[in-house]
Amino acid sequence: MSTVYIKPELSCLVSHKKITVADVCQVYAAEEKVAKQVRQVPLFQISKSQEKNKISVSSMYVIRHIMDDVPGVTVINLGEPDFLVEYLPPGPKKKWMDYVKAVLVGIIVFFGSAFTIMTFNEDASLPVIFARIYESVSGNPEGNGWLEVSYSLGLPLGIILFFNHFASAKLSNDPTPLQIQMRQYEQQEDTTIIENASRKGERLE
Amino acid sequence: MMWWQNAVYVIVGLCGGLLVAGGLFAFLALVGVVTRLAAGTTTAKYITFYEDMSLLGCVGGNLLFLYKFGLPLGNVFLGMYGIGSGVFTGCLAAALAEVVNMFPVLSERVNLKKGMTGIMLMFAIGKLIGSLFGLLR
Lengths: 205, 137
Known about the structure:
The structure holds two protein chains of two kinds. Chain A has seven helices and ten strands. Chain A is of the alpha/beta class. A three-stranded mixed sheet of chain A has the order 4-1-7. In chain A, strands 2-8-6 form a three-stranded mixed sheet. By secondary structure, chain B is mainly alpha-helical. Chain B is extended, with a radius of gyration of 20 Å. The model of chain B has no long low-confidence stretch (mean pLDDT 85). The chains are: A alpha/beta, B mainly alpha.
């Protein structure tokens, strides 16, 4: 009688179609022989129609298969109760497609930000505000341009402070706000897929 | 012109720009436009590149607004500006509606189970008509 610990991650990538326990979770057991045996337990085969989808799997499914194939073990799950398996075909990926997409999104973000700051400046009547400050300070609404220059310098400073980096020059090693958001979004996406699959009865139980 | 006047300008301008940029980008990050675009194109690993581009865009747009310098780049540039800012603003509007849970709340109120894609489509068509109506009077 031996105990086996498994730890599935919320989503995992595979590049072959015959899925074994080792593909979807880390396995630990006191005896290496048992752990090895457990890692080789076959789980399922990815069919042609499933190639493009993320497959939702319950950890109960994994535990059942381990117990069937390796009799007499106790399985303890330390990871996710449900997780996703995503199939990525082996071989070179279309790298240039990624670049094209990145450049397109880059253009959208560039002009979008330009547009957003211009609409904000217009909305906030920036020139009027500037003239007001010039008048208060020097008595003359016709400014000497110092406000405009320092405002234009303050903007990138604020963004660099907020994003925590520019190009590869990082202020600190923390992840940037968008990286955190990206991670959160992916996690929410994964849990939604899992819940949808269980509602439709498509999860491997 | 006294030196302290310029000092006031520099302090007000710098701090104003800093806070405006911080606020604006905190808002954009909260609404999640850029992350949504990155997720939609599965290019999450270029997220720092997108951040750089949005910084450059913000700086460029601001300079263009304040100094109104000539930009004789022709219709290609205009088209790029139009499409880029259009897609971005569209994403912003949709993401904003999503962040404030407009669609879930609405569908819950009228007990709607199906046709969410139809509603999204109508949302987009409505935006298109409204935009054309406003711009082409």
